[in-house]
Write a structure and sequence with these properties.
The structure is a single chain. By secondary structure, this protein is of the alpha/beta class. The chain has nine helices and seven strands. It has a domain of 126 residues: Rossmann fold. Helices cover 43% and strands 21% of the residues. A seven-stranded mixed beta sheet has the order 4-3-2-1-5-6-7, sandwiched between helices. The longest helix is centred in the N-terminal third of the chain and has 14 residues. It starts with a strand and ends with a helix.
């Protein structure tokens, strides 16, 4: 039995931190997992910037409410879910994901949790497990699933490479260059066709 594992940000919705960077006027927050492979380092750095500027979950959520899925993303997801099981594996946080899942017709998502003080200050974060995307794919495989995966960033490479078929989608030039063995697509129609072929 197949299950398709998709990244969220950069694949189905715009990058939350980039949107918040624009909304808050803090250019440093444009840095994402496309730029920094070490997620713990990236998140601790982000939290430091938020605290420095007196910003927290409430301000980020106000930005997220205005984010829409990428054009064609919901249709792509709906078409895929008619044919196979789909699981979104994301390093985002439950506090960020809910409004976006509503706009995507409530697909299943596995993600992480922010630690937040009563006043909305972000004090830390809790990862679901070590190497969450790769660990989840391996766990699915251990209970009889064959996985197909797609993502755009460094933190997606593990799940893509461990799957029976894996694809880069709207990735960076550097990641595509570093991994010429991985098929890379820019349009949902191309990705859908590639996944269908792998099913």
């Amino acid at each position: 039995m197949n299950i398709v594992c998709l990244d969220l940000e950069g694949v189905l919705v715009p990058e939350i931190w980039i949107a918040f960077s624009k909304a808050s006027g803090i250019p440093e927050l444009t840095r994402t997992t496309r730029d920094e492979p070490d997620y713990n380092k990236l998140m601790n750095w982000r939290i430091g910037i938020l605290n420095e500027h007196g910003l927290g979950l409430n301000e980020i959520r106000a930005t997220i409410e205005k984010i829409d899925p990428m054009p064609g993303a919901r249709e792509f997801l709906d078409a895929l879910r008619e044919e196979t099981q789909v699981l979104i594996l994301s390093d985002t946080f439950t506090q960020f994901a809910t409004p976006l899942m509503k706009k995507l017709n409530w697909p299943t998502i596995f993600c992480n949790t922010l630690e937040v003080a009563p006043d909305g200050k972000v004090t830390g974060f809790k990862m679901r497990c070590e190497k969450s995307k790769l660990s989840t794919v391996r766990a699915l495989q251990s209970v009889g699933f064959e996985t197909i995966a797609a993502g755009d960033s460094y933190n997606d490479l593990g799940m893509i490479q461990a799957s029976k078929a894996g694809f880069l989608f709207r990735s960076t030039e550097q990641i595509r260059k570093d991994h010429p063995e991985l098929p890379a697509y820019e349009e949902y129609g191309e990705l859908l066709a590639a996944i269908r072929e792998a099913l």
